[in-house]
Design goal:
The chain has 262 residues and is mainly β. The chain has helices at residues 39-42, 208-214, and strands at 5-8, 11-14, 23-24, 27-28, 30-35, 44-50, 56-64, 67-76, 86-90, 93-98, 119-124, 145-148, 152-159, 164-170, 176-181, 220-222, 230-235, 248-253, 256-261.
């Protein structure tokens, strides 16, 4: 189910007072931990996890002497997520990815704008709907949804200077992606994929050209012949490895390796 540890001054202490998290098979549990941009003053920590109801939940708490104090749930879905990441846009807004899978065929949800799964959400620091979120097709007002048609985005990076959000996303058998995420945009899953279903069949009969007409294609994709299973996403700057500056690092899960993409 996951646990949270505080590393400081050469010592490691388990943080107490966290809510229980649940797994379903190998998925779920404690999915991400993120410090609020003003953590040094506020001591606020945010966690994304699957709760006892098997629903994706975001809670925040104050870290005091290795204890989670004044914990409150600020977002709770009624759906299960197999992967999630928190990324701050600014001290008042954060992005939250909500992953879905499907074996051997795609699970429904990413194209359903009434469902939370297969989306990247944007929330205020206290979990509310930002009034400047996009108004999606068929809606009359904003929701938490920032973009849709995702499969399982587990890496997020926000470039504040360019005001641009990047995301890495698991495909099925191949078809892993790096996306530039635009407000209100459809990223096509499962209408189109560069990967295959887990039984080796095509995900759909849609052509690349037809997909480009109705969705945003990835900035970079890896086909079935090169498996990535991308987890975290880091943009390298100010590194002692000078030739790596300006590139992305992806944590790859299958097989386990570190992937640099410039």
């Amino acid at each position: 189910g996951g646990a949270l540890y505080h590393y400081v001054g050469g010592g490691v202490t388990r943080v107490r007072g966290l809510p229980p998290s649940r797994t379903s098979g190998v998925y779920g549990g404690l999915l991400d931990v993120s410090l609020h941009p003003s953590f040094s003053d506020s001591r606020l920590v945010y966690i994304a996890y699957v709760d006892n109801s098997f629903d994706l939940t975001v809670a925040r708490f104050e870290l005091r002497d290795d204890r989670a104090e004044r914990l409150s749930v600020i977002y709770k879905s009624d759906e299960f997520s197999i992967g999630s990441r928190i990324e701050w846009e600014d001290p008042s807004h954060f992005f939250l990815s909500f992953g879905v899978g499907g074996d051997p065929y795609p699970a429904p949800g990413p194209q359903d704008l009434s469902a939370d799964v297969g989306k990247i959400h944007r929330l205020t620091a206290d979990g509310q709907i930002p009034p400047d979120n996009p108004i999606l097709p068929g809606a009359s007002k904003p929701s938490t949804i920032w973009s849709y048609g995702h499969r399982n985005p587990q890496g997020l990076h926000y470039d504040a200077s360019e005001r641009t959000l990047y995301a890495t996303e698991h495909g099925p058998l191949g078809g892993d992606e790096l996306n530039i995420v635009l407000a209100g945009a459809n990223y096509g899953w499962p209408l189109f994929s560069y990967g295959l279903n887990y039984d080796g069949s095509r995900v759909s009969d849609m052509s690349e050209g037809a997909a480009r007409a109705v969705s945003i294609l990835p900035a970079k994709f890896w086909g079935p012949d090169y498996r990535v299973a991308p987890s975290g996403l880091l943009f390298v700057e100010g590194s002692q490895f000078a030739t790596w500056n300006g590139a992305f690092l992806l944590g790859a899960l299958n097989p386990q390796h570190l992937l640099r993409y410039d």
